[in-house]
Specification:
Layout: E1 3-9, H1 13-24, E2 32-34, E3 39-46, E4 49-56, H2 62-70, E5 73-81, H3 84-93, E6 104-105, E7 111-115, E8 125-129
Bound molecules: cobalt (II) ion.
Cobalt (II) ion binds near residues 5 and 76.
Length: about 130
């Protein structure tokens, strides 16, 4: 299973790109607001994978609360899958807890679904559909 991206919670996308771009190379994608999640995101290519930087739009968003509690850092791990619904079903059928019971549309217009960190040894796991 290919790692699609690693999500990193930051206070400022501009500050994060200023640090990461010269080291990783390339440029972050134009920032995109994902209103349903209360975040603004940008993606930076890293080989066959990406880094996703997440800046909260509101302090009471999931990422806002994450920053408040734990500070900046790695927020989630995303796997690219052919079928997000199937990936979620697979977690469920193996006794894992889900955050999303069904797939929804996330950043970049891609289908996404999250599984609970309690079921993945403290790691918030995202499944993301292939790009169209
Ligand atoms: Co993500």
């Amino acid at each position: 299973m290919q790692v699609d991206h690693l999500g990193i919670a930051v206070r400022s996308l501009a500050d994060a790109l200023g640090r990461y771009e010269p080291v990783v190379g390339g440029h972050g994608s134009p920032p995109e607001n994902v209103e349903s999640q209360g975040v603004r995101v940008t993606f930076l290519e890293a080989g066959e994978s990406h880094l996703e930087f997440l800046e909260p739009l509101r302090p009471d968003s999931a990422v806002g609360r994450f920053l408040e509690k734990r500070g900046e850092g790695i927020h989630h791990l995303a796997f690219r899958v052919p079928d997000v619904a199937k990936a979620l079903d697979n977690v469920r059928s193996h006794g894992g807890r889900l955050i999303d019971e069904a797939p929804r549309i996330g950043a970049r217009g891609r289908t996404v679904g999250f599984a609970h960190p309690a079921s993945f040894h403290g790691v918030l796991v995202e499944f993301v559909g292939a790009p169209k």
